[in-house]
Amino acid sequence: MEILRNRTPHGMAIRALAIAALSTLLAIHTWAQSPKDDHVVALPGLSATVLYDVPSSEPLGLGIPTDMALDPLSGDLFIGQFERNILRLNPDTLQVEAIDFGTEALGFAADGTMYFGVQNFILGAWFREADIFRKFAVIPSVKGVEFAPDGRMFVAEGNFGPSGLFPDTVLEVDRGDGFFRPVWDTIAAEAQLGVGLDAMAALGIDDAGILYVTYHTGELIKQRADGSYISLNLRAGRIGGLNEGRIDFADGLMYQFDSSTGQVFAIGEDEVARLLLYSDALIGVRSSANAVTTDGRNLYVAGDFETLWRVTATDGSPLSDVITIDRGAGTVTGTITILFSDQPLADAEIRFQNGVSTVTDADGNFQVDLGAGLYEASVSKQDFISRFLNLEVLPGETTRIDLALNPGLPESLAPGLGAEVLARKSTDQFSGSSDIFMDHQGNLYSMNFASGNITKHILDPETRAHVRSYVFATGGNLFNSFIVTVDADLNVYASTGNDGVMCLPPRDTEETYILTSDPQDPTIVRDENGVNRVISLVRDVDGIAILSNGDLIFSSGSGGAPIPGLPEGTTNSLVRHRNGVETIYSRGIPAAGGQSLFQNNDILKPDAQDRLMLGMRTGDVARVDTNGVAELIWPGDGTGKPDGLGAFTGLNADVDGNLFVRGDTGDGSTSVFRMISPDGENLLTVASGMSQCFGGFAFDRGGRDVIISENELIIRIFTLDGRTIAQNLLDPPGPSVTKRGPRIRLLATPHRINPHPEL
């Protein structure tokens, strides 16, 4: 058994970009396939092989594919790569060329016309007979281009980049005049399903013309023929807090690729998911963006791992013939225990991706019969960290699962450290905690993207024990906000999804802010008294820092856009907000000049000297001085260093200026919390085996404690000897206990978790 874990002007800049007929083809080349170990676990009768694996460092290499489509006339594969190009690849000869447009989505009409998003600005088209590229419609943030069987064109408009008329909506687009109308209602889907849906990621259409949409939260939503919505095969995995899976259809099956977990599924008309293949080789390194397409006999998948895979039936038959056959039945049995104690865990739920589930008995045992094939199993219970694994059920045989659920603590700690759960979802009114900020009174604010709220956690000023929690704010697109910051006057700042920044003044009572986004203008967010709380229209803000003089600095990533006062745009910039006036603080240019260090800059924290530390999508960590000059502190790919860092690495400094980082290891094998050594050459591990690879943290008690957002928990790591965490790392009290395990991070020998010495 394998275990894994309507046209409208949008400004002169866009129109000027769009009117030119732009077509630049790079050199054409044919690449030979390089040998690579095929360790993909596939459903019996399927085979997965590497088709193309030219690294991103090459002009015709694979970087981060964001969509893929087959040309209906030539059979060539067109692979869109955001901020890079479109690769055109012949799957048989491997002849490849590049078209100099970066795109997140593309699709072909039956006559061979290709429509594609041009960066975040417009919908472009390649008219094959004239071989020209032109603007087709002003639709920003194109996330999907698909065609119904009757030839109608549909485009998914996200909310990343310049604000459009219909963010997070599917548009039916007239191929004759380019006019469009919305045919999808995200707000209605949210109300019907009771979930927050923000940041549309991809679009699909099945053989009956039914629409499907994915969101950055891992949701896959189907719009049934009666107009109702249903959620299918929710993906819980994240890379840098996102799950940007792609889908495609053929022969009555939808293919869904999740590169955060390295899995490919097929979903039929019965709305049941079937696992087709899985592998560590299919897991993205620094991004969950990926691409998938099929012609019914070949399935192509690519992601942030510089490899294009082709999946076929071993006998050459259509994929659907292999996927839908009856393989008999088998049994899955096992025992679930509690990590660190080995005690049996009763009432834990074991759920499989096809909807079958069972619970453990008083002794932690379970048994269930399943059809033979590959499965994803989740094991969960309230107040424990859920586990996910893959397994194969063979006909007439029994497959056993024995594993331990973690009550919420890191699986390994550095010597001299202890850990405890400070707050949890079941009692403290939050879910999906992604950031933590400690105000000057010593209380905590957590941003919770899953529950779409900000929770305030009151700590005892003397003992630092958790006293109580309450919801400070809810609604207002907080489902797509990952950060929270508080100033000296206790004003709370957060992003409004990708549409701007809001400020919530303190209240004398524990009354919750009830926030509502204007459905006609997402840049307006009103509280329950009708007051608009938006203070800035800077887009794609995933980091807010406050300087000692009170200035606000916003980290605006690749989704930045022109705003009033900044017609040049805020993309990949730090923006200063002072008394309502906004200026560029830094473009990420180093002292020696040259190329910007900012690549979809994200998390942002200040140090005691007002220098700004920020993380990138690439995993790079940079520091910006008070003059806006940038310096690379640690490369995300680990070049010249002992290890790399994961996408959107979280960071913060303790009171002594030691820089800590939180994310994945360079190879993505485990989620860790580490400190960069004072000489900048090493990473010292504080804790490993964390439940998520992103999130904020804050220091307490002069650096002796660190409080960490950990999805459905907030945990505290503390020292046992009264020294700071940094001192314990630099002068350890004993041998290291850090262990490294498989992807699901099961420990062979659980370590003891010590109580806080002052509680």
Automatic annotation (TrEMBL):
Keywords: Carboxypeptidase, Hydrolase, Protease
Entry GO MF terms: carbohydrate binding; carboxypeptidase activity
Pfam hit, one: CarboxypepD_reg
Cross-referenced InterPro entries: Carb-bd-like_fold
SUPFAM superfamilies per the UniProt record, alphabetical: Calcium-dependent phosphotriesterase (SSF63829), Starch-binding domain-like (SSF49452)
Keyword Transferase belongs to the record: no
UniProt-recorded name of the protein: Carboxypeptidase regulatory-like domain-containing protein
Origin species: Sulfidibacter corallicola
